[in-house]
## 1
Amino acid sequence: MKTHDIEFKLNGEKIKASVKPNRSLLDFLRNEMGIKSPKVGCDRGDCGACTVLMNGKTVRSCLVLAVEADGCEIVTTEGANKNKLTQKLQKKFHEKNAFQCGFCAPGVILSATELLTENPKAGREEIKEAISGNLCRCTGYEPIVDAIEKTAKK
Amino acid sequence: MKLKIKYKEEKKTVQHSDFDAVGKNMNRVDGWEKITAAARYTDDLEFGPALLYAAAVESPYAFAKIKKIDISAALKIDGVLKVVTGKDFPHKFGLYMKDRYVFADDTVRFVGEQVAAVVAKTPEAALKGAAAVKVDYQELEPVLDPVKALDKKSPLVHENLKDYPHVPWFFPQAGTNIAHWRKTRKGDWEKGFKQADQILEDTYFVPRYAHCAIEPHSVIGLYDESGRLTMWTSSQSPFTQRNVFVGALEPFGIKHKDIRVISTYIGGGFGGKAGVSMEILGAALAVSFKGRPIKLLWNRAQEFYNTYQRQGVVTKIKMGATKEGKITALEYTLYWDAGAYVEYGANVVNAAGLSASGPYRIDNLKIDSMCIYTNLPPGGPYRGFGYSEFLFGLESHMDRMAEKLKIDPVKFRKINAISEGDTLPYGAHMNPTGIQEAISKVEKEIKWGVKEKSKDKNKEIGKSLVCFWKSPAMPPNASSSAFIKFNEDGSLNILVSGMEIGQGLLTVMAQIASEVLKVPVSKIRVETPDTDRNPYEWQTVGSHVTWGCGNAVKRAALDAREKIFDLVQRVYCIDKSDLYLESESVRCKTKPNFRLKFSDFVINGIQAEDHTFKGGPIMGVGMFMPEFASAIGDPETGQGGHPNVHYTTGAAGLVLEIDKESGKMKIKKAVLAVDCGKAINPDLVKGQIVGGMLQGFATVLYEDMRFDEKGRLINPNFSDYKIPTAKDMPEKVVPIIVETPQPDGPYGARGVGEHTMIPCAPLVANAVYDALKVRIKSMPVTKEKVALALFSK
């Protein structure tokens, strides 16, 4: 299979790579770049565990091809760890014991970062809507929503 | 929405202020690792370019004979290195009963069962190879219904049942599909029914459910050139896995010391990652391919159809009670759809058979819990371990009997609720319980007896209150152990093999050690296990590790403290009974100025007057086994043993709003009061309640595994098997903690994890009846069922 050359920014770093056209961004990030925060949960866009930010918008990286990242800016939780807003969210997540097994956490953190970047005063219902594509089986969502609500500007 | 946490204000309970670490809402010790994505799960581990990938060849039939397997085309595919079949591994394995095959023998028994596996250089080549393996089958008539499976004419799923090794508390019925029949008999139920003023008999139906941990199962195995097998597994049970691997790989001469199981963080368990399921393939493939690590990942569909499923059950219940509200007799027969292999699931059936009376004092009792083979995927452990399943019928029946007796259903429960010292179904006696307190608190919280009206005239509001109980189901000698070691700065490492599966075990273990050794939790590290380095733990199941592993950690901490006191006594000639620990130091009651900081001696010892050093690295060792437990009772009555170590009890309440036209339901308020003995970390108990209740509500409101007439699961994904999203949260959840100490628990603690989802199904069914007077007797209680029942009313 012919490969395609792509160039994109990953967590602020310039990446040049040659990828097969059928390779998912998720597979590429995890197995080529060693970026492990996006998780494989369902591989069909249902669970949100593989969420990454693509030009600031959350995408399910299992449904995005690596070639589509060409020219884009991709941010995963590894990169968002340096973002001030993400850090504020993380502090609240920690205080609220918001996650249990933690497998959904990287995806939820990026969805919450996107929401509060675009809508810093997001209310409870908007928060639920924004993370409704990130499945969590442990927490019943309540401490997660509480933490995001606490971070949002009043 | 604000969550309220309530504490028992009883004198029996030790005041919180007496503790430094126990009973405090501490932040999780694994919090930052998970929030920053530093936490590693099994599939995140790197194995370098030598790593090989595997894929399974699966049966398309529920029941068929394998006539021939042709691997030649698969071997020709570029990148395929090896194909392994049942011929290479004709071995059975299992936890409680050896009835499962590494690869199907000459028969496949469920759709998706592994027939062979392909090892290749890439995941793509492995999948291509698996698709190219040609298997000829002779299809057989599948057994899909547990009740029909009892028919004498039914085909037998396992013809050699009589030869299967099993634990002594199982009673397989040779020549039938009954893999185990737990009979519990107490008192004289015929007489009990004669004493009754009302008798109510009915049948309830519970389908199968999937755990849906967001992380799928994964395994990497490496059998190195020296004959050592290392397994990285996403598991709740590393030591049990090691033992089961040894059992299956014995013919290869692999012993316990040769196998090392390493478990990283796991992305949810809920029972689904207990025991051994797909991991056996990882072990077999590794052994068949010396020197290269081999990875096997389950995809989401496989996660649904080839791990464990929660078993379905048909329950027939007959209850008798006097007009005063005393239950005089209960007959409860449970026909479990246990699936193709029951090596673990038969113990679910056993647990339910010992405890299906629920938390009630019933003198005349007859329980038959039958584990029935079917050609559906293997049943197994799922949060609740049989109790959710029997509670649906039992607690639905409690409300219906109360109505027949014209007694308030909450009063009916209070009259019959079990008390400390009461005789349990199998003859032993009940542990301390705060169930009456739990009922009263829930009653108050949902304003029981006050009829509420919806603002919308098309909607009705119903209320319900149910009771629950559950005991850990485990072998009587299931044990825990712990090591504690000090570091130079006085910080601690705790080594246990209880698994952090999200519940907060690591944090709770740190809090227990902190309490004894007066080292702050921030200076304690606890990590997930490696069987070569961490001490033994049976499994992290049954809501028992806070209790069992917690006891071991407490003992290890006390052992370390004793070593510290011995050393200080020896060097300073202070009587050790005068010594105590405070703020990371040793203090003395008789010498107020004496303070010896841990960091001054726990590794490098104490310098004596002659300039020599005494002591050495301080370590503590602790072990725990419930030495009063025994699983051996009379096979015909279940009387005589002490199979269950204790029961955690509680009550739950619901305020449910229902649309009269569409049947759509909204949970206005869910309340759960659980007597966890002592909440080591109340915030984590709250987390179990809020999370467990949503998981429970999902099983009753919409989740449901659907199989077609050929035994194929038709909804193995999250589009067709919906689990709750953030938009499905109840409007309000009120967790209530009751604390009646467990005498043999660490600081009085007993388990709480599973209990939080158990009461949800009857809560919904009873609230629907309260609001609309329609009774749904089969789960799930979907809006469609409610709307149809209203329509045909």
## 2
Amino acid sequence: MTAELIQRLSKIVGPRFVSNAAEELYLYSMDPGTMPQAYPDAVALPKTAEEVQQIVRLAGELKVPVVPMGAGLVLSGLTRALKGGIILDMKRMNRIIKVNPLSRYAVVEGGVAQGMLQAYLKKYHPTLKHSMPDAPPIATMAGNMCIHGSGHLSVLGGSHSDMLTGMEVVLPTCEIIRTGSCSVSPDWFGRSPLPDLSGLFLGWAGTTGIVTKLGIKLFPNYAFNDMLIFVCEDADTMPDVIFRLTGVQVAEDMTPWMTPKPDWAKGFLHINIAFGAHSKKELTFKRNLLQASVRHYIDRKTAGFLPLPPTQKNRFLKVPSPDLARFADLRKGGGFEYVGAMMAIEHFPEAYRAGLEIAEKFQVSYSLGARIIGAGHAMMFFFAYAFNRADDEDVRRASEALDATNRAVLDMGGIPWKAERPAQVQIMEKMDPDTFALMTRIRATLDPNHIMNPGNWEK
Amino acid sequence: MKPVVFDPDLCAGCATIDCLMKCQYVDFKDIDDARTEKLNINEGRDSRVLHECLTCYACQEYCPDHNNPFYLLVERQEEKGLLPAPRPILEEQLRMMAPRGRIERKMVSAPVVDMCAFPMLTGCVRGSLFENASTIVGTDIFCNIMWLHFAKNSVIRERVPKAIDNIMAFYLKDANTNELVCFHDECYGTYTSVAKAYGISVPFKPIHLFDYINRRLDVLADRIKPLNQKIAYQRPCSNRLSPETDQTLDEIFKKIGVERVPRKYDRQNALCCGGVPRAQQRDELADELVEKNLTDMLSTGAAYCVFNCPFCMATLGMEVAERGLMPILVSDLVQLALGE
């Protein structure tokens, strides 16, 4: 079977872009998180949507699973081939197809990396930017979009899936379809006013189709940028603080962080707030609005903004932020994972305390934080645990901490984000049964051969 | 705990109340108003000055009797729990600047230059100006004067003697000198003015950077290439504790051929750089101070904006550069004149 598979894949994408070499299958069997390895039978790198289509047709014929993969950085093992089959590495589909500067959107292929679009915009459209996740720049646009990612413009524009204007998708039954305005018009301006089919592919962990193109919203890239760091001692005040700060609607990004290192930060709750403007005057006006919104706390001396000289702000204005990457290597050995939980902002204090308790119980190195989504409409609260992959005991502790965190998150009304297989099971246990039944029917309709990333979203 | 050296009778007999009447940040209706507020402070009652004070140190310089009005004011702020900055800001700063206990003995020789807690500036100690100099640096020898901005005399009392002990035990005890060159005004102010007022003994001889540079320029006189430039000087708050050194700075500028242009906001009328009010969450005031400083400097036709305080430079440096002036430290300017 494998020999035939490799031979036929080679015919589709060319022999240079297919492999079943042991060392390559090893690399594709895992991601940097804690999930155990799962080996694919083959890896293929298509260049076009038509090649993707042919591979899916072949997989359907041979009843071989297909697992779409961007950069493989999801950390929760969603691109592992749980039932073997083909990993479809999308990195060769890396064309930036067009940028519409007036309507502020870009259309890119499914393998375009965040850093590629960032560099492209910087060079050709310096007045525009897109929302970057705090992931390595090689992380792909499509992968991040499909997991409902978020980034440095998420207060302004919501989660990354809210910034999606349309998609081209190869279905498990081999049709190439489009969602959003591009299904009717040459323009990729948005998903309304049509029935929104994009949702069939967002949050499904690659079980319903393969995204080959997508349109995304772009935003003004300001000439003047600034940031503030709010700090307080009382977690119970954080929901109100977030409510107030987002209420003035000038921030582009807000990221609370709570960490035991450096020593001076332990026990304090911080919020980095980034904002930009077309002029210094406008920038000052926005800063004043943000500060005025929490004057209530400042006047009581219970909270305030760190006095940062301009020269110290630059590191906080870097996009993507290097800080999480620094923490990721805290324990050395290349292990890092986090539970990102989508939840309402009123659960902030509960989530914070749960994170501290779990870190203490399992003796793991932790960093807690969040990214605010929209005008305080939700947050992605993260419980990050660094571990040393070469230390089995360290990995075990981190895995147990993650499992406990997932349970705590669900108990407090949150939902683990980009849930790994065990967390999916926990979510499904909690999910309304009729909703899960609908999910199953939709999936069966789209993927009658059950070839798309099997093992995910299944009881 | 030794009280701050302060003579209430001397203060009561003051005819001018310069400490408050000359204040650039708190307004008084008339001298009687100022006298009332001063009396309130002296006698431990609440005063609006305790709430409105920018903590710029200037009243230390304005007081004709050298009666430590500012140190007393900080004492009263702390007694009453009137924090100029929010509590979490203060607490984080206290932790950031706490002695680490990681100091290690190091052989040093004269001149020993105290870089306080700021290793990023040790690179400034170079060339013929600082020939054969040793530097010492770290939070274990932090001068701790910053707590005057945060109503924390208690921290000064607790940490300054330890810093002094560390300087002696780890560096100067076995060195060939009893002199410590203070790169920052803050350190010199601590080991002279603050120590004296708080009853802290200082076993070494603090040397102000300006005095050190001035002496070195006499030695290096034949190497000086006059810069022939106009400079605007941003006098820092901590120089208010050693105003006599401002004259030394004039001598330095004369020796290297620069003209310290007359500014509205220089000398006794120097204006805060805007850094401290940001910690006090008074950003709009800070913006105003920055703008006043910049407008004032630009109106003089100066080519350089010269700093001696690294915090002032961090606060104003970028703005100054954006507006066309070259920000530079005094020591770097001197090295420029020495062709280095």
## 3
Amino acid sequence: MEITAQPPPRETAERIREAVAAALPGARIRVTGEGSHFSLRVESAAFAGQTRLARQRLVLRAVAPLMKGDGAPVHAIDRLETVLPPAT
Amino acid sequence: MSISPQVEARIQEIVDSGHAVLFMKGGPAAPQCGFSAQVVQVLNRLLPEYQTFDVLSDSEVREGVKEFSDWPTIPQLYVGGEFMGGCDIVKEMYDSGELHDALGVERPALAPDQVAISISAEAEQILREAQQQQQAELHFGIDARFQPFLGFGPAAGSEVRVQVGDLTFLLDQDSAARARGASITVVQSEHGQRLDVDIPASGTAG
């Protein structure tokens, strides 16, 4: 019998990072967490002038494909911080 | 993927079924997910009644509402037909007072020394011993139906701290406003001792 193992959490975190990076080019992204629960901190100029809801939507829309279905690698984003880059 | 017009119409009907409508896992008395439970806890502080829809009871709505709201997770809160957000946003809106405004509930404004909770020596001892066992903060809540709650857990950081004797109670702002003059005592019942909370603001004794 073949046993399919769950991908290790590190790999899932990397997939989240890649998905957000593709949606928000140039963003600084930090993914922490384990198992199927993760926390995200995203710093992006794309958040300028956006409401909290719109900012979170931009990020969650990118992660959504990883959260679909019962066997999804990501069950929840426990904490999502969306910040603007510091002024230069 | 898009949802069928039938499912969309059903979800719209649910959204329109009340001023505050929460899509959650389980019911408000027994949430089946920690995030749904947290939103229920916040709403209970503010509203004596609100609408909920258990997405576990309906797989079409469970998947459909994610497309409908363009939001990948449950819980989801709607107020006046407008999507507010999920657990994170609801908690942030509560702390900032924006949720009070959206729901048309007056923001409580008071200093911790106005709260004035009294506690009998017996009740204080029970809570002190329980806290030593639990090694956690002591939370005291009074929801919008004036149901009291005593329990242990980590602090969220935005609570009002009220010192009573050796005990420090953590209350959310709305509970603090209702707790003025509250007294905690021990009553004997046929099942043994239990804590009783009297809340003058509820307008009824006991």
## 4
Amino acid sequence: MSPRVGHLLSAGNLARLGFQDTEATAAGLARLGPPAEPVLAILGRTADPDLALAALLRLHEAAEDRDQLLRVLEDDEGTAMRLLSVLGMSQALGDHLVRHPEHWRELTDPTLGSTRPAAYALRDALLGAVEGRAYDDAVDALRVEYRRLLLRLAARDLAHHVGIDDVAAELSDLAAGVLEAALAVAREKVGEAAATCRLAVIAMGKCGGHELNYVSDVDVIYVAEPVDGAVDGADEAVALRAATQLASTLMQVCSADTAEGTIWPVDANLRPEGSQGPLVRTLASHRGYYERWATTWEFQALLKARPVAGDAELGQAYVEAIAPLVWTAAEREGFVENVQAMRRRVLDNIPAHEAKRQLKLGSGGLRDVEFAVQLLQLVHGRTDPSVRPPTTLSALARLTAGGYVGREDGRSLHDAYAFLRTFEHRIQLYQLRRTHVVPEDEAALRRLGRSLGYLKFPVEELEKTWRFHRREARRLHEKLFYRPLLAAVARIPGEDARLSPEAAQERLAALGYVDPVAALRHLEALTGGVTRTAAIQKTLLPAMLEWFADAPDPDAGLFGFRRISDTLGRTPWYLTLLRDEGETAQRLAQVLATSRYATDLLEREPEGVKILGEELRPLSREAIQAEMLATSSRRDDPEAAVRSVRAVRRRELLRISAADLCVPFGVAEVGYALTDLTDATLEAALAVAVTSVSRARGIELPTRIAIVGMGRYGGYEMGYGSDADVMFVHDPLPGVDPEVAASMAKAVVEELRRLLALPATDPPLEVDADLRPEGKQGPLVRSLESFAKYYAKWSEVWEAQALLRAEPVAGDEELKERFRALIDPLRFPSRGLGEDDLVEIRRIKARVDEERMPRGADPATHFKLGRGGLADVEWTVQVLQLAHAARVPGLRTTKTLDALNAAVGDGLIEAADAEALATAWLLASRARNATVLVRGRSADQLPTDPRDRAAVARVLGYGPGETTTMVNDYQRTTRLAHAVVERLFWGA
Amino acid sequence: MGKQEDFVLRALEERDVRFVRLWFTDVLGFLKSVAVAPAELENAFDEGIGFDGSAIEGFARVTEADMLARPDPSTFQILPWRGDGPATARMFCDITMPDGSASYADPRFVLKRTLQSAAEEGFTFYTHPEVEFYLFKDHPEPGMPPVPVDKSGYFDHTATSAGSDFRREAITMLEAMGISVEFSHHEGGPGQQEIDLRYADALSTADNIMTFRTVVREVALSQGVYASFMPKPFTEFPGSGMHTHVSLFEGDRNAFFEGGAEYQLSKTARHFIAGILHHAAEITCVTNQWVNSYKRLIGGGEAPSYICWGHNNRSAMVRVPMYKPNKGQSTRIELRTIDAACNPYLAFAVVLAAGMKGLKEAYELPREAEDDVWSLSDRERKALGLEQLPKSLHDAIAIAERSELLAETLGEHVYDFFLRNKRQEWEEYRGVVSAFERDRMLPVL
């Protein structure tokens, strides 16, 4: 060996060339002698140099003309490249060469680089291989010949970079030839009877579409007729029997596993009635079936039907008979539902752990691209024959040319599909196995990456390119389905062809829009004109349309978007924000197509869209209050001041509800946020009212005022529709006439209520003071002293119970503390809860349950008063609080869940019982909030309208079609809580 | 649309069917039917047929009444009893809400859910019912005691018996509808008949029982007699039960069979029986849902009143039939409580759920009852730990109200409606002054 070669064999150089096992390589190369040097250079460009060299050595061993082999490798670079590329990619073809070493000479053919073999040539070769042989012999010979031709094709593919569409077409031609040869073998075997029938083999699926994989089932359908001249039914029966025998023998010939291996399985299950139906039918029977019984997916399959073997005339007659039916399929009843169901199936069917490594299934997978293209063909091919080619890439090109798909989108989808298919081919070539899963081991990835030309950083480059194309394909539906809709209503620069309005309506309906005419009108309005606004809308809308379609109410989403865009259209930040911040746009779509409550807020203040672009988290009470006080203090007119406070409140309601919808957080946290917001609002409004009254009367306020939250407000548990239940307390300053102080306090409170109730565009804040002593008969505001006197004299147990939820929320800090000190002994009585008191509470509850439940309300789904609903749980907890709060500090809280936890901690209630109560309470609270969000109005029970109910289920995290499961879960959860209430509250 | 829908549409054409009856079952087990023309059927497959659920016992409140009946094409059958003219066919339906989610009020969905959760454990559930009923001479008149068509007894055969004509015609009709009949004979009471259906998966069997009741009534009408599945029409004669043989299969292997084990009963079978016994009292109000059902259960004879099992013991609630050599696949247990007036979907669902619970929790099988339970004294029964089944609908309801198993299995809607309805039935019954009271008391008080 020359010194130069010695240098070449250094470990460093070998590693640079891509060898892993440098020692074995050096030893192996040494065995080749002088040809090692040119061979080495070529090995360095193969997918797997180690594999290629090992296979070459085995071939060298096996070949009788091994000297000749080495000479050719040394002298003929083209042949060396072809041979080594195959050996470095495909273990299976390497094994084949070792078994049939004479086949290496196939690769010396210089025309391989330039000439695609004609389909008839392939067929003749395969027919020649089986001719005159006995059955078993012919079956083996067919396998060997098939592999010989496959070897030539693989060499062309790997060494000469033939386009993926050509490779796939050539594979299909090869398959057609195999079917023809197998039919010839079958005819020999069946014998005389075979002469009674004409049989045509129609290829379906990838083979029919001229886009077969290296390894794949070959889908076929058989048509048979008696030979000409036969007329009566008996002849037909005889012919069909013979044809069936032929067909099943054909399948056997292809799929049988012999000493020479197998070719591929032939799958006839796409035939009418699938595996239940007869294997072979006459032309009339096929036609009858498709005219009457076939379903959408069957027509989709027929898009690719192509006669490939057997009686060519009959095959042609079949295609001519079926084609017109295919192109009217889109007019059939239920087409749209089927399309939607199929689309969902493509996306749903794939187990999560495989999803990331799958080329075929899942969103943006090969199947997804193929299905989407076929659906568009079915929808539009009826009126436009130009989009009918059966091959995915050709069809995509025609759809693009016809304007059904945008030009850019068409190109990027083409690239993505071509890459994914090539990638799939390379994965399959290794062992000639049918697989669509990207391997995870480093060596396999390196081989695949190098085979695609990434010699430098094969694994990283491969992953990067794959990620890129997958991302492109993932937005497939947006590109294929939604973007062209805009072209139907707007002129898109550079697109010379466009979707007709009728075609656009069809599509919208297929995508779940109930009123496609209105939807199209909105699209037209949004994209009209040549302004910059319209241009941005055109890029934005396709994605929005898809997000709307995924939400409970797509029509409402689009309509809401239009109204907001009408208001904000020219505002500079609006569309830019949506365009540049994908997340903001998606949130907006979700809010609009789910929640009337949030949509109303947005429509009243479209500026709120900005909030969706921020981190969606409620602001603190301090921050809100500071802003409210600042904005109101800048206004002299009290009405204007409170309006500004209420505007802040409206904006914060939007923030909370949008956060709740888009980045769900706990229902308890929603309660805190809404309570904080109410606190701040009351605090600011109180300040305005005090200023207003003082100014009117010309004196400083002679008393301190505080507001005490009651009920769910006092418990930090407000929902979207909740009123603010409060009591007002005041305490005259020293030396002030109590009458004057009382009159001023009353004026302030009345002014506060007036200002908050002024008609305005924000959701009103009802300030309800009916829980005060003596209810509506009592004074609206009492002095602290008067409260003390009242409670000393009149206190009933229900009042103590109500005070459990009393929390001073706004006004004078000192007074708040003193009020708390006043009521604590009442609500946390040191004597606990007496028997009489307990009876009284139960009696009141019984009456409340009876009387307060509205007529016609469903006790099973009423949030508050329903069986196991909010009131049941709260009363149960409150009884425990009244009885034990004096002793157990944790029970001295206004919050239901905190009190429940404290009760568990003290052993007052079993953990399992508390769990049942808490679960029901949380679910009822969540369901109530969800219902208000969906309906835009306060609500007491699960909506009865099916669409609203379904939307509530979606907000609560259930999938489409799981609405009744949600209702059942709600009823079970509350029933279990009710059983606990029966035991603990009612003592049953 | 799938193959089965296609098959149905084709059959409609070929058989010249003019009407298709879409059948479903209300919560109490009464058959409901909507007729549609074949032209509407394709649409019915795609979208379902809308109807007002509030008009059906136990289905919906007035405010949420819109429901859809979606025909199950695998249940398609031509109805054989409408003479020679244009044919009528029937299909059972699943009930859904307008948004496509399944209705929890649909008894068929209750059974499907329960079968599904068993399937998730790898089991399919097979049942084989022996349905008993009486034939009377005339349509019942209020206040008049019914008159049986004959005075024969168990297995009697008389050439001119109205009953045997009747059975022959009923069986022909059932077979024409694809329902295989195993066995039929005259039962113990005068005019009482028994027809056994071949075993099949529980959903098909439940559908078949609904069909069976209709066929039997139809044939009776055509012969000028009246058929009734009332559990206990006579104080002095045996009631009509529906002894049901049940078994679990894992794939095509009978999961109840274990060669060499005692009575060839596998562990699975033992836990399953234990489950049924453990929850027997809870599920009784579904398997025996009428006030009258309990008159059968406390009447002795073929009907059990005690919660126990026994090998070939006809007084036990669960009987393990004698094992026949080399018949491992037919290993099964016989549940003798169920009566012929149950809602078969709900009854099979609760039996399966109870058995599966036993399997899941690996309940111990209590000791076998070896004696005729009826012949024991109260003390003996107490010593043996034999508990009695609920003695009345009232007792059964009280136990059912505390049953989580029942609630989970039936679903909240059916559980709630069913118990409410049964409480009402009991209240109405309790208030009625009966012939017994008048006969006893009027003469002496």
